[in-house]
Amino acid sequence: MKSAMKKSYRYIALVLAILMIGALALAGCNKSEPAAGSSAAPAAGSSEAAEEPEVTGPPIKIGLLNETSGAYEQWGKMELQGFFSGLYYATDGTMAIDGRPLEVIVEDTTCDVGVGVQKATKLLEDDKVDILSGTCISSIALAVMDMAAEKGVPYVINCAASDDITGANFNEYTFRTGRNLTMAAEAGLGFLNEDEIEGTTWVVLAPDYAGGRSGGESLGAGVEARGGKVLDYIYPPMDCTDFTSYIQKIKSLNPDYLCAAIVGNNFIVKFPQQLKELGALDNGMQYVTSIADFDFLKTVGEAGIGQIGEALYHYNCWDTPANDALIQIHQELYNGEYPDFWAGESFVGAQAIVLGIQKAGGTDGQAFIKALEGLEFESVKGTYIIRAEDHQALQPMAVGRIISDGNGGATVEAAAIIPLEGMTFPVTAPGRA
Q1: pTM for the full model?
Q2: To pair with 16 at 20 to 30 A between CA atoms, which of 131, 178, 267, 310?
Q3: Domain range holding 147?
């Protein structure tokens, strides 16, 4: 467990950050999640109330696209909680910047691209947000990023990871503070030596959507760059619950390694369960995947001890002041819960938004762009640099190892930390190299 922060975070009692989630409540979220229309402040008595900051200007409106319901509802909850934790951290608990209170308007994409576009239109045209953020789903981010650019509204993406966002589809108004899929693949394969991969056969499995295919291609490219051979790419639908036919195909191909880019609860929990049930790992095939969220760890349990792979975010892997702050704030806001998976990514995105507005001296789009380009700051994983050429945040990455939690379950430790310098890669944004 991380050491307690010496600094005490205080939260204002009045409503400065308003959750407006259309006509929807936060379906499926537990009781610690802020309800629609409520303050994002912690429950009464969980923290000393701060004095109300002096308001000297109009609210700063931040629109957050979020998977409040649908297949990735659990991940949407993580992103939402991490985002508010990041705003509290970056504003020192005031939820205001230079006398202007933050108003966060959350819209549920329902994990659907069409709905995501509708909600982005509302945020941009009706609510007239100053900054757009959010969504864990790359296909939604890709669909709305040009909409924001056309309105001159910066779009800061926390979690959606398709390489195309800061690559082929680049626009000057879009930034990504989370890692991309090339970085994930490099971290995910980095624990294997090239001589362990050379001459081996692989099957790559990922969900059938933009981010899943991009992730699968990145993993395959990493394998083949190290001398391995990809026998096939398999893309089950995002909402798949029965993986039997896909697992039977994998068994018939009999690869040395199955490499899975897992996204969403079905792929994290049901897929590995069915791999075991159908005996897919009985003949020595090695299963290589990201180390995902708490549900994933509950599923693999002690049987997963020793497994190594990319760890997007686990609170045990990072020993930084910002990670300590994230843990403390998250637990104060959400009834003692530890931050999980996407919370670490969205915390950084919220922090970057605040830093950008502060540096720009306001919310003018062009000034915000200049403020974030080349910005170097300290956050959860250490030093981040937002590359000016493609607006991708370079950052350290963790290779995680599953270990026993001492109570019959599993947790994660850092097997290796790949420094920021080891996470550089070519700029692929057209005309920006």
Answers
A1: 0.82
A2: 178
A3: 11-179+318-395
